[in-house]
Amino acid sequence: MGEYEYVKFKKEDGIGIVTLDSPPVNALNIKMVKELGRLFDEIERDEEVKAVVVTGAGPNAFSAGADVKDLAGLSPDQAIDIVKLGHEVFTKIEKFSKPVIAALKGFVLGGGNELAMACDIRVASDRARIGQPEVTLGLIPAWGGTQRLARLVGKGKAKELIFTGQMISAQEAYRIGLIQKVVPDGEELRAAMDIARVIITRCSPLAVREAKKAINEGLEKPTIEEALNVELGCMERLAQSEDLREGLTAFIEKRRPQFKGK
User: Fold this and answer.
1) What angle do CA 30, 143, 111 make, to 5 degrees?
2) Annotated active-site residue in 134, 188, 210, 225
3) Span 7-200: which CATH code?
4) 3-state SS record for the chain
5) How much is the mean pLDDT over the chain?
6) CA angle at 14 for the pair 233 and 10, rounded to the nearest 5°
7) 5 is catalytic
8) Which of these, 70, 106, 153, 240, could form a disulfide with 61 (CB 3.0-4.6 Å)?
9) Choice among 114, 160, 242, 246 that is catalytic
């Protein structure tokens, strides 16, 4: 892997761990966002990595959002360039071919929550505080927050959270479907790793990839018929795969399948 200043990376049993490392609250400065994009490009090419967990360094935050110092004094054109950068990198993570799980703690605010929403699954400490406070700065959640939040929790709830800029607890975020699991503080990384291990040890990586594609692209279609066509295309690819034959054969033979992702 290349050299990075604001993100750290290590591999553990087929899981890549990406750590936002900009203490004390892991604010997302422009260089960190660019580094995230480059790092995910590298992980995409790394065949040893089967799943990714994203977390934040230190006890205070996953990420408290974009670094406001980067925004102050920008021209309108420069501000739009930063928005486009966030769109590019977070969409890359959302469409990443391998499952991506966010391990959330402390403050998960603004761009930090937008990054978390670009991940496939979110696990949070019971002390996490989550929100989109951009409107209190005269901004909107423009790294995909207005769109992904509405898709995850519904239009009305997304408007409430964005219009008020208020933080919510991990328990409330779980109740509305923004996160998938709440665990005791300090256990969020372990819990995210446990989910990743289940995925990579029990499931066909090819099937997981096609399932992710079917869900993501299907939700973008205007009709259920078009979405079902996306699903059909995914299944057509799986029907020709070695993984499908291995999975069915292993089931009949009452043994654990040995998937190769082919």
Assistant:
1) 65
2) 134
3) 3.90.226.10
4) CCCCCCEEEEEECCEEEEEECCCCCCCECHHHHHHHHHHHHHHHHCCCCCEEEEEECCCCEEECCECHHHHCCCCHHHHHHHHHHHHHHHHHHHCCCCCEEEEECEEEECHHHHHHHHCCEEEEECCCEEECCHHHHCCCCCCCHHHHHHHHHCHHHHHHHHHHCCCEEHHHHHHCCCCCEEECCCCHHHHHHHHHHHHHHHCCHHHHHHHHHHHHHHHCCCCHHHHHHHHHHHHHHHHCCHHHHHHHHHHHHCCCCCCCCC
5) 95
6) 120
7) no
8) 106
9) 114
Only one residue has tokens 């929790």, namely: 153
Query: Are 121 and 179 in contact, with CB atoms under 8 Å apart?
Result: no
For 42-81, the pLDDT digits (tens) are 999 999 999 999 999 999 999 999 888 888 788 899 999 9
- Tokens describing residue 34: 């660019």
Looking at the DSSP bridge assignments, the partners of residue 12 are: 15
Q: Is pLDDT of 1 > 90?
A: no
Query: How buried is 31 (Cβ within 10 angstroms: 0-12 exposed, 13-18 middle, 19+ buried)?
Result: middle
pLDDT, tens digit, 9 for 90 and up, residues 99-123? 999 999 999 999 999 999 999 999 9
Tell me if residue 134 is catalytic: yes
> In the chain, where are the structural domains located?
7-200, 204-253
Would you say 7 and 36 are in contact if contact means Cβ atoms under 8 Å apart?
yes
Domain 204-253 fold is Lyase 2-enoyl-coa Hydratase; Chain  A, domain 2 (1.10.12)
Q: What pTM, to 2 d.p., does this model score?
A: 0.94
**Measured between alpha carbons, how far is 197 from 190 in angstroms, rounded to an integer?**
10
Q: Which residue has the tokens 């009305």?
A: 156
